[in-house]
């Protein structure tokens, strides 16, 4: 048993002995306010004192109706990422949603290259064109010091009127082979520059009729098993590329789990994704501030349920709502959940091991990729 008042001894370098609080900090990716930071900024305290695992950058701050947030131009973003990493003792994930098309945080009006949507690339179905666009995105991120792109979307475009996928052109195609072909190119182009990628949204968001940002999303009657195909093929050890992480969608499917949405479901994460499909990379939640989750479970309970179910990293964007003290408050709550056995002790250590393994591949690491 772990002594929660002492330290956890895990054979992981470069920190063979770490306090539980520091391990928990590594399991979070947080958003924060502003285009710059100084030593008094709350995110600096999270990085320095709570060993925060990563940050996520947004161009807008929706919670305060502000048109500008972390991104105002190339030079500013590069300076910001350098400042963030300067406060970290463990390499920091600097994440962004830069899918292309309508879903992008780096926009032409703030000095960044134009990007094509996944739908447009899939329609052209030209591998060279996809490689050019994916390579341009990866080069931009690498120049800025952004090492984690929360893309590609591998949802099938089953319902073109889907408000959060099909309607805004986030899917390569309704055909699994087309999705796999272009997602593979996307991942390969990012790997050339040691930019991490993330498949999303497991187990498939393409058939949904509602937006999980806004409320409960039930795919029980619309989801098709073929939606798993891109995930299975891109995860397989024999695939041309192996992706380091996968994002869970806030999707309820009573045929998979009659009680919980995928983000909070042990059945979906452990039984389906880990055991049946064989994924051993980092499992990341979609933003837990989205109303599909918070309206029913609340943020603290959602975090604990997600970690207990098998999620390795939790995203709290601090964009839909803003709480600069979130990490300071959630770490004691997780420690209490471990003491009360609501989160198994081994889950925290498993998650940390996977996060640490993924960080070996970060841009600037001395360690070469093995795949």
UniProtKB/TrEMBL annotation:
GO terms classed as biological process: carbohydrate metabolic process; peptidoglycan turnover
Residue ranges occupied by any Glycoside hydrolase family 3 N-terminal domain in the UniProt entry: 22-357
Superkingdom as given in the UniProt entry: Bacteria
GO molecular function per UniProt: hydrolase activity, hydrolyzing O-glycosyl compounds
Keywords: Glycosidase, Hydrolase
Family named by the database record: Belongs to the glycosyl hydrolase 3 family.
Protein name per Swiss-Prot or TrEMBL: Beta-glucosidase-like glycosyl hydrolase
